[in-house]
Amino acid sequence: MKPEETPLAKARRETAAGVLYAGGAFLIWGLSPIYWKAMQQVPALEIVTHRVVWSFLFLVALTLVQRRWGEFKHVLKTPRTLLILALTTLLVSCNWLLYIWAVNAGYMLQASLGYYINPLVNVLLGMVFLKERLRRPQALAVMLACAAVIFRTVSHGELPWIALTLGLTFGLYGLIRKVAPVSSLVGLTIETLLLTIPGIVYLVFLEAQATGALFRASRPLDLLLIGTGVFTAVPLLFFNLGARRINLSTVGLMQYIAPSGMFLLAVLVYGEPFSAVQLWTFVLIWAALAIYSIDSVRTYRRAG
Description:
It contains 14 helices and no strands. By secondary structure, it is mainly alpha-helical.
């Protein structure tokens, strides 16, 4: 007979599992450019359309397995929640499309920069829309991030619009989803549902024009396109399982795994140009994130 597990041992086991789940999610997201690069010959819009349609099928199955079908039907009957999710659908689809296009067009460094600055964008959005007051370290971190963007713009003569758009769309997505009374799984299922009907119409159009990639190029490409659903849903599931088991400060620190993976792939694997200007831009952003993260951990511990 096995000895009964103590509460402390159970808490440690749950925390360890949470770190593994959340770490797995962020690692998948950080290495995701490898997956999208494998379909580089397919236009970004077509990849995103497949991602939406196959994700919806997988998420519906997942919703049934997790017994959330009642919540799913309730949301469909609630106009206000549906309207909110229609707006978040627009934001997440723009984010997905721009991200995949940026990766396959050779702008992975800008994409990683966009997800690095996302926490600081969230702070700014909270200040503007939720009237939250910035603590001094937060204000310093935001000023450093702004300095990084200005420095890169002046040095290159071009605004890093890809990074800013990715950071802003994802930040607004998170902000608006907070006011939607729906779980992350059901919310994403309905968001993909709203995109699936026009997505199917688009894929049928491509099929009629004989220009679609599915079942025309190669078996590996077919599997990659169909697999976009699993590739989208699995890290989301891992993230949800992990976030339930670990505290917010840990999740906040672990989120930098994803853009760090993109950054390393861009520089070390895909050989994107990395100038001194880009280096200093990232140094300023990393300094801002260090200040922001230390302040967040201290604030969380004081609150606990």
